[in-house]
Amino acid sequence: MNPVEAWLKAQQSRIRGPLNLALVLGLANGSLLILQAWLLAQAIYLTAIKQHALSAVLPWLFPLPPIFVLRFLLVQASERVAFDAGAQMQSELRAELYGRLQALGPLWLASRASGDLANRVATGIEALQGYYARWLPNRALSALLPIAILVAVFPADWVSGLVLVLTAPFIPVFMILVGKGAEELNQRQWRKLARMSARFLDSLQGITTLKLFNASRREARVVAEISEAYRDSTMKVLRVAFLSSVILEFLSTVSIAVVAVLIGFRLLWGDMTFLAGFFVLLLAPEYYLPLRSLGAHYHARMEAIGAAEGLVEILQQPVPEQPRGDVPVLDAPLGIAFRGVDFAYEAGRPALTGVTFNVEPGRVTALVGASGAGKSTVLNLLLGFAAPQRGSILVNGHDLSGFDNAAWLARVAWVPQRPHVFAGSVLENIRLARPGAALEEVEAAARAARAHEFIIDLPQDYDTRVGEGGVGLSGGQMQRLALARAFLKDAPLVLLDEATAHLDGQTQAAVMEAMGELASGRTVFMVAHRLSTLSLAHQVVVLEGGRVAEIGARAELLMRGGIFARLARAHEAGVTT
C-alpha cells in the first residue's frame, strides 16, 4: 500500500460510525434481496410448475410490496449516510488544511504557486468525496454481500455455489490489473492539473504586465497548448477507465451465463429442482453486482489518490515553532534592537548577515536599499513570519523569541505596499483591525487616514460592498483603508512597506499626511522605495546585500557621500530604486 492510500485509510477513524451504519444498511438491503428472491421463486414455482391457484400463491406475493418499499428506503438511507460522511470528511480535512497553511505562514505560501495551492484546497478536497462516500462503502459490501448470498445459495445448490466462488475472483483480479495502470495515469493527471492551474492563475495575475510587453497572445498560445496536452492525457485516463468497465461487465456477464447454462442442463437432466435452479438464477446477477459496482467506483479511488498526494505534501510540512512565552509586551512605544541577526530563506543564500541597529521608542526608522537588500526580511522577522537563525531581536530589552506570538501581533500594525481588500462592506474591511469596534471609532480612524471623504461619497458610504481584491476602489483608496485599519488598531509598533507606492502626487500627499499622524507617539519601521517619503524618518538604515551599510539621519547620510547619497542622486535623476 502506497503512503498516500495509507493516509486516506487512516482518516476513516473520523467517520467510522457513519461508514459502519451505511454498511449495516447495505447488508440489511442485501438480506431483503435474498428474501425477495426466495419469495419470487416460490410464487413462480407454485404458479408455473405446481399449477396452484392464485389464493395459494398470494401468501408468497403479499410480502413483496413492503420489501420493495423497505429496500428503496434502505438504499436511500445508506447513500445519504455515506454522502454525509464524505461531506463531513471534506469539511474536517479542509479545516485542517487551512489550519496547516496558516501555521506554515506567509513565507512558505509565497514560495508556492498560488494556482497550485488553490487547486489542492478546492478541487483536491472535493475529489475525496467519492472515496469516502462511494468507494469505501462499496468495497465493504463487495466483500460481505456475496458471502451472504453464498450462504443462501449453497444449501439450494452446491454446484452453482462452487461456480460462483470460482468465477468471482476474476473480477477483482482484472480490476486491479487494469486499475494499476489507470492509477499511475491519474496521479500524473493531477500533477499536470496542478501545473496548469498554477500557470493559468499566474497568467491572469500578470495580465497587465503581459499586455505592457505585448506578450499576452504568446502566453495565450502557451496556455492553449498546456490545456490541449491536459485534454489528451485526460482522454487516455478515460480510455483505461472505460476499458476497465468493459472488462468487468464482460467477466460478470460470462460468469452469469455459465451459471445459467449449468442450471439449464441440470434441469434438463433432472439433477436439480426448478425451485432451487430459479432461486439461484435470481441471485446470480446480484452476486456479481457488488463486484461490478466496486469496479465502477474504482475511478473514485484513483481520483482520490491523485488528489491526496498534493494534500499529504502540505499536511506533512513541518510547522515552524511558535513561541509561547510569558514575557509581557508593553503598550508604550517600543524600543527595538537588532543584535547580530542572521537569516536565510535557503541554505547558502543569506538574506541578512550580522544586522545590528537600534530603534528608540516613538521614533521612525526608514529601511533603504536596492531590491533584495533585506528590507522585507526585517519586516518579516518583526511580524513573526520568521525567526532569526542567529542573533536576537530585543523589544524593550526582552528577546522577541520569548514573546507569545498572538500577543505580539496584537501590538503590531502592518500597512503593506499592496493591501488586500476582501469582498464585503467598507465597514467590515476596516473592522478587520478590531472586529468589535463601534461605528464612531471606525469613522474616526477613517478620518485620520483621510479616507472618510471618499467613503461618504460611495453609494452606501460605509455599508458599500466592494469586490474581492478591492474591485470598485482605486489604489489610493485601498491604501487609505489600510491606514484606517492601522489607526483603528492603535498598535504601539507600526510597519509600513512603502505605503505610498503606485500613488499619484495628490493621493501621495494625503497618505503622507496621514502617515505622519499615525507615526506620532509610535515606533515605526518604514520601507522606503521612494526617497521622498523619508521626510518622516528620524533615522535611516541603509541595507546592502543583507548587511547594514550605513545608519544615520537623512541629512547626515547625504553629507557622507556613500551608498545613500548615490541612491538619492539616482532618485533625483528619475531612477526608481
Summarize, please.
The protein has 21 helices and twelve strands. The protein has 577 residues and is α/β, with parallel strands linked by helices. The protein has a six-stranded mixed β-sheet with strand order 6-9-10-3-11-12, sandwiched between helices. Strands 2-1-4-5 form a four-stranded antiparallel β-sheet, with helices on one face. Strands 7-8 form a two-stranded antiparallel sheet.
Explain the layout of strands and helices.
Layout: H1 3-10, H2 16-49, H3 54-61, H4 64-110, H5 114-126, H6 129-156, H7 158-167, H8 170-205, H9 207-212, H10 216-269, H11 274-296, H12 298-315, E1 336-346, E2 349-359, E3 364-368, H13 375-382, E4 390-395, E5 398-399, H14 405-409, E6 412-415, E7 424-425, H15 426-430, H16 439-448, H17 452-456, E8 465-466, H18 475-489, E9 493-497, H19 505-519, E10 523-527, E11 539-544, E12 547-552, H20 554-560, H21 563-572
Parallel strand pairs: 3-10, 3-11, 6-9, 9-10
Antiparallel strand pairs: 1-2, 1-4, 4-5, 7-8, 11-12
Helix pairs in contact: 1-12, 2-3, 2-4, 2-6, 2-11, 4-5, 4-6, 5-8, 5-12, 6-7, 6-11, 6-12, 7-10, 8-10, 8-12, 10-11, 16-18, 18-19, 20-21
Write up what this structure looks like.
The protein is of the alpha/beta class. The chain folds into 2 domains: 299 residues, Up-down Bundle (ABC transporter transmembrane region fold); 136 residues, Rossmann fold. The chain contains 21 helices and 12 strands. The strands form 3 sheets. It has a 6-stranded mixed beta sheet with strand order 6-9-10-3-11-12, sandwiched between helices. It is elongated and about 115 Å long. The protein starts with a helix and ends in a 5-residue tail after the last helix. The mean pLDDT is 82.
